[in-house]
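User: Assemble these into one structure.

Assistant: Restating your components, then the assembled model:
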Amino acid sequence: MLRYTVRRLLGAIPTLLILIALAFFMIRAAPGGPFDAERALLPEIEQNLRAVYHLDEPLYLQFLRYLGGLLQGDFGPSFQYRDFTVTELIMAGFPVSLRIGGLAMLLALAVGVTVGSIAALRQNTRIDYSVMSVSMTGISIPNFVMAPMLVLVFAVYLGWLPAGGLGDGSFANLVLPVISLALPQIAYISRLTRGSMIEVLRSNFIRTARAQGLPERKILLRHALKPALLPVVSYLGPATAAVITGSVVIEQIFSIPGLGRFFVQGALNRDYTLVMGVVVFYGTLIVVFNLLVDLAYAWLDPKVKYA
Amino acid sequence: MSADLAETAVPESSSGRSLWVDAWRTLRRNRAAVVSAIVIAVMAVLVAIGPFLSPYAYDFTDWSNLSTGPNLATGHVFGTDTLGRDLFVRTLIGGRISLMVGIVATFVSLVIGISYGATAGYFGGRIDHIMMRIVDILYAMPFMFFVILLMVLFGRNIVLIFVAIGAINWLDMARIVRGQTLTLKHREFVEAAEAQGVATFAIIRRHIVPNLLGVVAVYVTLTIPQVILVESFLSFLGLGVQEPMTSWGALVKDGSEEMESAAWMLIFPAVFLATTLFCFNFVGDGLRDALDPKDRS
Amino acid sequence: MRTTVSLRLPVAMVIAVSLCACGGGDSEDGAEAQRRPIGGATGTELAEVQELHWGNGAEPQTLDPHTGSGVPGSNIQRDLYEGLVNEAPNGDLIPGAAESWQISDDGRTYTFALRRNARWSNGDPVTAEDFVYSLRRSLDPATLSRYTFILNPIVNAREIAAGERPIIDLGARSLDEFTLEIELESPTPYFLGLLTHSASFPIHRPSVEQYGEQHTRPGNMVSNGAFMLDQWVVQSNVQVVRNPYYWDDENTILDRVYFHNTEDQSGEIRRYRADEIDITYATIARRQLPWIRENIPDQLVIAPYLGTYYYSFNTLRPPFNDGPELRRALALAIDREIITDQVLTSGEIPTFGWVPPLSDYENQQMVEASWTQAEREAEAKRLYALAGYSEENPLVAEFLYNTQDDHRRIALAATAMWKQVLGAEVTLRNQEWKVFLDTRQARTETQVFRNAWIGDYNDAYTFAELYHSDSGLNNTGWGNDEYDRLLGLASAEADLAVRADYLQRAEAILLEEMPILPIYHYVTVRLVKPWVGGFSPNIMDHHRSKDYYILDH
């Protein structure tokens, strides 16, 4: 298992290299530059700026320079936020996104698996329809409608919770963003759980277990849950990586200082270093989480073994 | 990655019998699915011909009726938006776009994803390794970054939205299908087919793919609404469908800005959107039950 | 010789009122607080907690006043730093770090007497040498400032910014510790106004030299304004606190000021309604206006703003490169009142002129401005025909704008009017912002396109210079020798009335030739909580939190 993990991580290096190259040349291919603004720069100053950020060098040289910086853990300075380096911006934003995304994912997993399992056990009954209908609201009503509605009700009308901002990071500030972020995930997870649980419950080994007179709860928890979670686990890897790197919708609506907005702003502002930074960061997380998924597969499904 | 599968303990098998005849029979018995399918069909017809029933064009500005609520007298049965455009027509036109985006992009991702995933999973070994590595690379590319760049490079274009969304979504499909294929391929019915010398692609097509359909059906019902939502997310960022064309996502985004002062601008498109998504869901459930090979007696 | 003497009115009588009236005990009871009238029994009682929450739009790009660009950053810099000259809440110029100044008779030499009690936030005195250093740094090409042109009137500033002269050649020197002399290339009547721009703010040399690019961090920054930096959470808020060394600290009432990132405009209004924000950013979500007008109309403040929203023609390419007839036809066919009253609805000022209303400047308008819209449309048809277009041979053109909801709605209305009045077939095309900027600047594919200009300083010249044929910002390609000549005369002229006349004549030429099509002048649209004291709108939309206070509520 350890050898496998190490091999996978080493194997990820070329993956990441190709990813970095792709992203680097793609963002450079986009028209417009980081210093364009309503008031165009004086040519001399634009030249100075380009020289300072090495934008006047041939592209391949800039790429090598970027890779060199990455090897030393240096993501470079941000073009847009001139007082900060990209490393600082990511290190400031990630803990926030991780906290909100992590909580949302845990909430979604707990609620989603429970709802999905209940629905599967009561397949095609009114209970099934109603719990699934409720859980489906998360992906029937877009986030950017749901989140403002939650704010209107709980912050503006009732005044129970803050309408935005992270404040001092207290629980009250997290409630609405975490719920808004978790709602669609609950829907996805409960849907996947229900589907695979129904399949598992019909399989022969469960029938055998039932025939042996094992209590239903024991069958469910001991035998059915693990295999039923396989598709959920497949989904969970990349979804977690995506959620903990921030959601632009949630961050914008609640004005939360996470990573998510950097993806959009970085690209729109042509903040080359910032956008590369978050892309590399995201890419690395995805690689790690995919590895975790495969390891989890081995644990959940004894039939899959890694040599 | 080389994954060796131990002998399977699940002795279920699929036979070559007419899968689809049985499936149809099962599906018809599922009332929720049938009703939902009818609703979707009605919705499709409505968005296809509905706009012709209204006296207003989807881009016509009625200066005397800016931002007015539903009103039978003026013929704006759903009211108008801030530019005085008829919301009834725009909701239906938006539905055309949303349904088209949803179905086409899902179809694209389905075709690519299933063939790619099943192939990788079935062959395993080096082929699987390389194929999944490519998926890994594409996976590690943030979707938003990719879409924004496409929009910036090529301008806004509805075809591009299909391609972008479909081309990214297939990765999910490929992974899920591959995972399922890994657990399927050593079941007896596959091994039996191999022993009989059935051609590889015939095995994939006849034995692997049908057995994937349960998972795929669930996946599709998640993907169509997901794609429609992705389109609305692009609208949220201001990168969605090009005006004066619209989509449910764009309408809901517009309406959400004024949910307190002009509720009709949110409610009508949102109801259409949510209803459609729910119905796809129930149909998906029905399909899942019907196509699950293990369920047939 | 003109002399200004410092005379600052006490901000408010409210300071005198003691806090005891509001009673400490029951302030935790929210319901009780709600029932309390704003400002207490007298209407002037201060709240116990003196904290102000601004909605501040996008994330500031930097807090370095010399490299800064963008409104959100400048808003914060005005609280952190104090230039030689300040603005009163109504926009009038008042003494800042300088308590008085003298202007030589030829209008080219300014001598500033600095306040002897002005201090940096670490207690160091603010000296003339600090200003010399700061002005040089601001212009130094190595600083990479976007706004060097603000200081262009100073002797040698232009050459220094271009890297053609050493920075020590700048026409600014300290006569003694507290006397600063600035020499100008030519009389520049608006020069004092330029000194309210952040490019002329002083910064603290020892900390810049010690911390380099990190001198704007909390803990590192030393500033001379009424407030000093306390926290900066990127994408969330910037917090500044009272600077105890500030010379006028005893008249500063607020203890802490928050500048919240409010990129999401609807979110900003929700936070305002939840009492988390006291004053919104200058452009609130237009879509919320109907709700606001119905529910909180007295908290809505709309005021003129020094900016013009307009369309531009590319005069280098067909079809707009011939005479002014076609351009004028399109200009007259637009019913500006429909756009301001029905599309925008937030009190924008429809216009047929380029320069917004300013004091000491007689507003210019197209001749047809006083006509009725029907007359204008008739004239538009006549000019359209004169330019060689007709129903059978309509104008076919493309309108380019950057992707944004308001631009889209105005463009839809304008092209609909061109279609209805003239039969012109103008199609819409939008581009993402940065792409749009490139396309517009290149002048090779544009025909008619969206444009806007916000004045950098409170003078007509900030508008006039844009359409000088040498201007790097003139994206129409239009040029006129007489226009250029008048601008040259104006910048060398010391007599204000004569100078204004030159600029007015120049604008008249611009409006006759019509390379640009003015639509409306901007306004600021804000929500202000009733307990915010000291707020006053002004045309530059410059505000200083030290003029503010929070009433009991």
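The longest strand of chain B covers residues 3-5.
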